Protein backbone atom coordinates (compact mmCIF):
# COMPACT_ATOMS: atom_id res chain seq x y z
CA UNK A 1 0.00 0.00 0.00
CA UNK A 2 1.29 3.42 -0.92
CA UNK A 3 1.52 5.92 1.90
CA UNK A 4 2.07 9.47 0.79
CA UNK A 5 3.04 12.29 3.14
CA UNK A 6 1.86 15.82 2.39
CA UNK A 7 3.50 18.74 4.16
CA UNK A 8 2.14 22.28 4.27
CA UNK A 9 3.81 25.69 4.65
CA UNK A 10 7.15 24.76 6.24
CA UNK A 11 8.31 28.36 6.70
CA UNK A 12 11.91 27.56 7.58
CA UNK A 13 10.95 25.91 10.88
CA UNK A 14 13.47 23.06 11.10
CA UNK A 15 12.40 21.73 14.53
CA UNK A 16 8.81 21.29 13.32
CA UNK A 17 9.84 19.72 10.02
CA UNK A 18 12.16 17.21 11.71
CA UNK A 19 9.39 16.16 14.10
CA UNK A 20 6.82 15.71 11.30
CA UNK A 21 9.21 13.75 9.09
CA UNK A 22 10.12 11.47 11.99
CA UNK A 23 6.45 10.79 12.69
CA UNK A 24 5.50 10.15 9.06
CA UNK A 25 8.51 7.91 8.56
CA UNK A 26 7.41 5.77 11.51
CA UNK A 27 3.97 5.55 9.87
CA UNK A 28 5.60 4.05 6.79
CA UNK A 29 5.41 7.05 4.47
CA UNK A 30 7.90 6.74 1.65
CA UNK A 31 6.84 9.46 -0.77
CA UNK A 32 6.50 13.12 0.13
CA UNK A 33 4.99 16.26 -1.33
CA UNK A 34 4.99 19.84 -0.05
CA UNK A 35 2.40 22.48 -0.95
CA UNK A 36 4.91 25.36 -0.85
CA UNK A 37 6.05 28.24 1.36
CA UNK A 38 9.27 26.52 2.24
CA UNK A 39 10.91 29.74 3.40
CA UNK A 40 9.75 32.93 5.15
CA UNK A 41 8.99 33.60 8.86
CA UNK A 42 11.42 31.00 10.23
CA UNK A 43 15.13 31.05 11.07
CA UNK A 44 16.57 28.07 9.19
CA UNK A 45 15.78 28.23 5.45
CA UNK A 46 19.00 26.52 4.35
CA UNK A 47 18.64 23.62 6.77
CA UNK A 48 14.97 23.10 5.86
CA UNK A 49 15.72 22.97 2.14
CA UNK A 50 18.64 20.62 2.76
CA UNK A 51 16.34 18.25 4.68
CA UNK A 52 13.58 18.25 2.08
CA UNK A 53 16.07 17.58 -0.70
CA UNK A 54 17.44 14.70 1.40
CA UNK A 55 13.91 13.25 1.77
CA UNK A 56 13.15 13.80 -1.92
CA UNK A 57 10.09 15.89 -1.02
CA UNK A 58 8.40 16.99 -4.24
CA UNK A 59 7.56 20.66 -3.78
CA UNK A 60 5.60 23.40 -5.45
CA UNK A 61 6.42 27.07 -4.87
CA UNK A 62 4.39 29.26 -2.51
CA UNK A 63 3.99 33.02 -2.40
CA UNK A 64 6.76 33.47 0.18
CA UNK A 65 9.13 31.47 -2.02
CA UNK A 66 8.18 33.66 -4.96
CA UNK A 67 8.59 36.84 -2.90
CA UNK A 68 12.12 35.77 -2.00
CA UNK A 69 12.86 35.23 -5.69
CA UNK A 70 11.42 38.64 -6.58
CA UNK A 71 8.67 37.04 -8.67
CA UNK A 72 6.01 38.82 -6.62
CA UNK A 73 6.26 42.07 -4.68
CA UNK A 74 6.67 41.59 -0.92
CA UNK A 75 5.53 45.21 -0.34
CA UNK A 76 2.02 43.76 -0.12
CA UNK A 77 3.05 41.37 2.65
CA UNK A 78 2.43 42.27 6.27
CA UNK A 79 5.50 43.99 7.80
CA UNK A 80 6.68 40.90 9.70
CA UNK A 81 6.42 38.68 6.65
CA UNK A 82 8.30 41.27 4.59
CA UNK A 83 11.07 41.62 7.18
CA UNK A 84 11.41 37.85 7.25
CA UNK A 85 11.74 37.70 3.46
CA UNK A 86 14.42 40.43 3.54
CA UNK A 87 16.26 38.54 6.29
CA UNK A 88 15.98 35.26 4.37
CA UNK A 89 17.40 36.87 1.23
CA UNK A 90 20.55 37.74 3.22
CA UNK A 91 21.17 34.29 4.67
CA UNK A 92 20.00 31.82 2.04
CA UNK A 93 22.70 30.15 -0.01
CA UNK A 94 22.85 30.73 -3.76
CA UNK A 95 22.36 27.07 -4.56
CA UNK A 96 19.11 26.95 -2.57
CA UNK A 97 17.81 30.15 -4.18
CA UNK A 98 18.41 28.46 -7.51
CA UNK A 99 16.66 25.33 -6.26
CA UNK A 100 13.61 27.39 -5.22
CA UNK A 101 13.56 29.08 -8.63
CA UNK A 102 13.16 25.67 -10.30
CA UNK A 103 10.02 24.70 -8.35
CA UNK A 104 6.81 24.31 -10.36
CA UNK A 105 3.52 25.92 -9.28
CA UNK A 106 1.58 22.68 -9.48
CA UNK A 107 2.26 18.96 -9.58
CA UNK A 108 -0.29 16.61 -11.14
CA UNK A 109 -0.15 12.84 -10.70
CA UNK A 110 -2.74 10.15 -11.30
CA UNK A 111 -3.77 10.06 -7.64
CA UNK A 112 -3.25 13.65 -6.58
CA UNK A 113 -2.54 17.24 -7.45
CA UNK A 114 -0.51 19.68 -5.37
CA UNK A 115 -0.59 23.49 -5.45
CA UNK A 116 -0.18 26.30 -2.94
CA UNK A 117 -3.35 28.38 -3.05
CA UNK A 118 -5.96 27.55 -5.68
CA UNK A 119 -6.39 26.59 -9.34
CA UNK A 120 -6.63 27.28 -12.28
CA UNK A 121 -4.12 30.12 -11.72
CA UNK A 122 -1.71 28.94 -9.03
CA UNK A 123 0.53 31.96 -9.76
CA UNK A 124 -2.18 34.23 -8.30
CA UNK A 125 -1.96 32.52 -4.89
CA UNK A 126 -5.69 32.89 -4.22
CA UNK A 127 -7.02 31.70 -0.88
CA UNK A 128 -9.22 28.65 -1.22
CA UNK A 129 -11.95 29.70 1.17
CA UNK A 130 -15.11 30.00 -0.90
CA UNK A 131 -17.41 27.74 -2.85
CA UNK A 132 -16.63 29.51 -6.14
CA UNK A 133 -12.88 29.14 -5.75
CA UNK A 134 -13.31 25.53 -4.63
CA UNK A 135 -15.46 24.61 -7.65
CA UNK A 136 -13.06 26.32 -10.08
CA UNK A 137 -10.21 24.41 -8.50
CA UNK A 138 -12.02 21.05 -8.72
CA UNK A 139 -12.60 21.70 -12.43
CA UNK A 140 -8.89 22.20 -13.06
CA UNK A 141 -7.49 18.89 -11.78
CA UNK A 142 -8.56 15.36 -12.59
CA UNK A 143 -7.51 13.09 -9.74
CA UNK A 144 -9.42 12.28 -6.56
CA UNK A 145 -7.55 14.68 -4.27
CA UNK A 146 -5.99 18.13 -4.56
CA UNK A 147 -3.71 19.27 -1.75
CA UNK A 148 -3.09 22.91 -0.88
CA UNK A 149 -1.95 25.21 1.93
CA UNK A 150 -1.55 29.01 2.09
CA UNK A 151 -4.15 29.77 4.82
CA UNK A 152 -2.30 27.68 7.46
CA UNK A 153 -5.68 26.28 8.57
CA UNK A 154 -6.56 22.64 7.80
CA UNK A 155 -9.84 22.29 5.95
CA UNK A 156 -11.45 19.89 3.46
CA UNK A 157 -13.84 20.49 0.58
CA UNK A 158 -15.72 17.40 -0.60
CA UNK A 159 -17.42 17.19 -3.99
CA UNK A 160 -19.68 14.19 -4.50
CA UNK A 161 -20.72 12.58 -7.78
CA UNK A 162 -23.94 14.62 -7.84
CA UNK A 163 -21.97 17.88 -7.72
CA UNK A 164 -22.79 18.58 -4.06
CA UNK A 165 -20.01 20.61 -2.42
CA UNK A 166 -19.39 20.70 1.31
CA UNK A 167 -16.69 22.22 3.47
CA UNK A 168 -15.48 20.57 6.67
CA UNK A 169 -12.97 21.30 9.38
CA UNK A 170 -12.69 17.59 10.05
CA UNK A 171 -9.23 16.33 9.10
CA UNK A 172 -9.64 12.57 8.60
CA UNK A 173 -11.62 10.99 5.75
CA UNK A 174 -12.18 7.85 3.77
CA UNK A 175 -13.26 8.91 0.29
CA UNK A 176 -16.12 6.74 -0.90
CA UNK A 177 -17.35 6.22 -4.45
CA UNK A 178 -16.56 9.09 -6.77
CA UNK A 179 -16.26 11.70 -4.05
CA UNK A 180 -13.30 14.01 -4.61
CA UNK A 181 -11.53 16.22 -2.09
CA UNK A 182 -9.49 19.38 -1.83
CA UNK A 183 -7.49 19.22 1.36
CA UNK A 184 -5.70 22.08 3.04
CA UNK A 185 -3.03 20.29 5.07
CA UNK A 186 -2.30 23.16 7.47
CA UNK A 187 1.14 24.59 8.19
CA UNK A 188 4.07 22.63 9.60
CA UNK A 189 6.08 25.72 10.46
CA UNK A 190 3.55 28.39 11.40
CA UNK A 191 0.12 26.89 12.21
CA UNK A 192 -2.84 29.25 12.60
CA UNK A 193 -5.60 26.93 13.74
CA UNK A 194 -4.77 27.43 17.42
CA UNK A 195 -3.04 24.04 17.62
CA UNK A 196 0.70 24.59 18.11
CA UNK A 197 1.62 20.95 17.32
CA UNK A 198 2.92 20.53 13.76
CA UNK A 199 0.60 18.79 11.25
CA UNK A 200 1.47 16.16 8.66
CA UNK A 201 -1.03 14.55 6.28
CA UNK A 202 -0.94 10.88 5.29
CA UNK A 203 -2.77 9.92 2.11
CA UNK A 204 -3.31 6.28 1.15
CA UNK A 205 -4.66 6.41 -2.41
CA UNK A 206 -5.65 2.73 -2.65
CA UNK A 207 -7.91 3.16 0.39
CA UNK A 208 -8.94 6.74 -0.30
CA UNK A 209 -7.82 7.42 3.24
CA UNK A 210 -6.71 10.81 4.56
CA UNK A 211 -5.31 11.35 8.04
CA UNK A 212 -3.87 14.50 9.57
CA UNK A 213 -1.38 13.70 12.32
CA UNK A 214 0.04 16.29 14.71
CA UNK A 215 3.27 16.21 16.63
CA UNK A 216 4.70 18.37 19.38
CA UNK A 217 8.20 19.73 18.81
CA UNK A 218 10.65 21.99 20.57
CA UNK A 219 8.78 25.29 20.21
CA UNK A 220 10.79 27.15 22.91
CA UNK A 221 14.03 26.40 21.04
CA UNK A 222 12.60 27.54 17.72
CA UNK A 223 11.21 30.66 19.35
CA UNK A 224 14.56 31.45 20.96
CA UNK A 225 16.34 31.03 17.65
CA UNK A 226 13.91 33.39 15.91
CA UNK A 227 14.85 36.09 18.43
CA UNK A 228 18.54 35.27 18.32
CA UNK A 229 18.86 35.73 14.56
CA UNK A 230 16.99 39.04 14.72
CA UNK A 231 13.66 38.09 13.15
CA UNK A 232 10.52 39.83 14.56
CA UNK A 233 9.84 38.20 17.92
CA UNK A 234 6.12 37.86 17.21
CA UNK A 235 6.99 35.20 14.65
CA UNK A 236 8.30 33.05 17.50
CA UNK A 237 5.70 34.08 20.08
CA UNK A 238 2.79 32.99 17.90
CA UNK A 239 4.22 29.45 17.58
CA UNK A 240 3.32 28.92 21.26
CA UNK A 241 -0.39 29.46 20.62
CA UNK A 242 -0.61 28.36 16.98
CA UNK A 243 -2.10 31.61 15.70
ZN1 LIG B 1 2.45 30.24 4.16
List the helices and strands and how they pair.
Elements: E1 4-7, H1 14-26, E2 31-34, H2 45-54, E3 58-59, H3 63-68, H4 79-91, H5 94-101, E4 106-108, E5 112-115, H6 131-139, E6 145-148, E7 155-159, E8 165-168, E9 173-174, E10 180-184, E11 198-204, E12 209-215, H7 219-228, H8 234-241
Helix pairs in contact: 7-8
This protein binds zinc ion (ZN).
The site of zinc ion has 7 residues, from loops.
Can you name the CATH architecture? 4-Layer Sandwich
Could you give the count of β-strands? Answer: 12
**Rg over C-alpha atoms, rounded to the nearest angstrom:** 17 Å
Mean pLDDT: 96
Strand content: 15-25%
Ligands bound to this protein structure:
zinc ion
Strand order of the largest sheet: 3-2-1-11-12-9
The quaternary state of the protein chains shown equals single chain
Q: How many DSSP H or I helices?
A: 8
Helix content: 25-40%
Please write the string of helix (H) and strand (E) elements: EHEHEHHHEEHEEEEEEEHH
Q: Briefly, what CATH class?
A: Alpha Beta
Number of domains: 1
Low-confidence stretches: none
Based on secondary structure, the structural category is alpha/beta
Q: N-to-C terminal Cα separation, in Å?
A: 35 Å
Indicate the overall shape: globular
Amino acid sequence: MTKIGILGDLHANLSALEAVLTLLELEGVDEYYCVGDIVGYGPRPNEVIELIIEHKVQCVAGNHDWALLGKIDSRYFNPYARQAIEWTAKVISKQYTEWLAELPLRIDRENLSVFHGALPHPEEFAYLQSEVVARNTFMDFEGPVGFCGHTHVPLTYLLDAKGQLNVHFQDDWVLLGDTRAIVNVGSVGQPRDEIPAAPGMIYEPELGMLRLLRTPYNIPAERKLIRKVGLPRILGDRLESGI
